[in-house]
Specification:
about 290 residues; alpha/beta; Rossmann fold; eight-stranded mixed β-sheet; about 15% strand
Amino acid sequence: MPIIDVSPGVSLSYEAFGDPAHPPVLLVMGFGAQMIAWHEDFCRALAERGRFVIRYDNRDCGLSSKFDDHPVDIGEFIATVSAGDLPAALAMVPYRLDDMAGDGLALLTALGIDRAHVVGASMGGMIAQSMAISHPERVLTLTSMMSSTGESEYGQASPEAQAVLFGPKPADRDGYVAAAERELVWASKRYGDAAALRELAGASYDRAYYPAGIGRQLGAMILSGSREAALRELRVPTLVIHGLDDTLIAPSGGERTAELVPGAELLLVADMGHDRPRELWPQLIDAVAAHTG
């Protein structure tokens, strides 16, 4: 997987599938997840629909640039935010979602792509929204999947899902892989697959175990605030996809996104949680292919 410099101090690891002459689709991954969470088979299936598919590691994740000079302790950060000390919280985190959106756009530039269809999942959906807001001329279409608007009253996590998200993970490989099963709390109730979660966790651990980046990405999400006003003004063709089983970002996050963006299409998917079960790939790929056609 190549690594390319996209801006001073930021290099991104990426991988492309399909014919570069086909319409480009940029896949943006979520919080703490490497680009391999966009399964290679999913990427190839979308490429077979006549798309040039690009997946990449966000900054502070996978094989992309790390911001080790700005350590962020998640517990300390959450306590600071909860105490209402916004200036101190802002000082802790070196970047925001807009910077991460800039990374994705800079990757497209480095690859010689002026405009692309952008598909983001979870935090990746927030980054994709930020791309469309900041540079609508570069985003052919937006697909926001299992994501939200930055408004705290929408898309709230269940207490159980939140506990798993912020709970400590074992540092050893065996423990880390076993702990991945906890993510069934937000997975599809019908298709949730513990073996698949363990497989991804093992591959992610072996490729680039890097828990230090999670605090900075979390801070970027929390401190970037609401996109409500900007989404109301967005004029990029938008598809919103959300699973009805999602307990990490409740379906109200997707519903609110579609409500705000003029003309947005909302696809609520039965038997989908905060995941993309292989059984639902045909439906998801059909939807993305139709939206980017």
